Each structure stands twice: as C-alpha cells, then as structure tokens.
Amino acid sequence: MQERAVERRAAGRRGDPLDPDRAVLDKIAGMQGDDRLIAERLHAIIRATAPGLVPKLWYGMPAYARDGKVVCFFQSAQKFKTRYATLGFSDQARLDHGLMWPTSFALIDMTPEVEAQVAALVKRSRA
C-alpha cells in the first residue's frame, strides 16, 4: 500500500509520463535473478502481443492497463517471499470461460512453450 501511495503522489507531480515503459523497466531492472529474467520476457511479450496495453506500476508491481484499468500484472517471488513468481489478470482481462477460470499463473521459468501460453492469454485478455 505504501508503494501505491508513492506511485499516486509521483503521478500527480509529473502528470502522465512521456515514456510509459520507463517506470516499469526501472522496477524490473531492480529485481534479481529469475524474477528479473521472467519479468523482462513478460514485458517484451506483453508489449509485442498487446501494444495497446500501457505499462504502469501498480502497488509496486509491473502492470499493464487498458483505459487506465489494470489488465495484467507481475508479482515477483522475491518481493512476496514465495517459491514462484505470478502472472495475474484482473477482471478487465475478460478471460471468462464457463463458471470458473484461472486468473493467476505461477511462473518458474520462461521456456518457449510458456512464452507461447503467455502470449495467447494476453492476446485473449485484450479482446
């Protein structure tokens, strides 16, 4: 919550940033090990698959928004002291399938198969 308050104050001081990638890329650069590698690949996949999603920080995490509303986000394992990083989707993602569907995915590594799955989810989420 503290990080979100800092983000809101910074946005109020500087208005909309000219480079929406900068804050997210800076946050990713500050990550360590596998978290950084996974976040870098996710960023590249999301930007290539859904260029209309705007990168932003959301509660201190890299996130991607449509019309100001977060569609997907990355949670590092290190920050949350978990054994895996997470790619999460909000209700804005429109991943609806039946009466129950997943909204977050554990990430251990970014293999070509995982990258393809992420790209498919992101593509579907912006429909």
Describe this structure in words.
This protein is an alpha+beta fold and 127 residues long. It has a single domain (2-125), classed as Alpha-Beta Complex (Aspartate Aminotransferase, domain 1), CATH 3.90.1150.200. Helix content is 46%, strand content 21%. It has five helices and five strands, in the order H-H-H-E-E-E-H-E-E-H. It has helices at residues 2-14, 20-29, 33-49, 77-80, 112-125; strands at 54-58, 61-66, 69-75, 85-89, 104-107. The protein has a five-stranded antiparallel β-sheet. Strand 2 and strand 3 form a beta hairpin. Helix 3 (33-49) crosses helix 5 (112-125). The longest helix has 17 residues, at 33-49. The N and C termini lie far apart (30 Å). The relative contact order is 0.15. The model has no long low-confidence stretch (mean pLDDT 90).
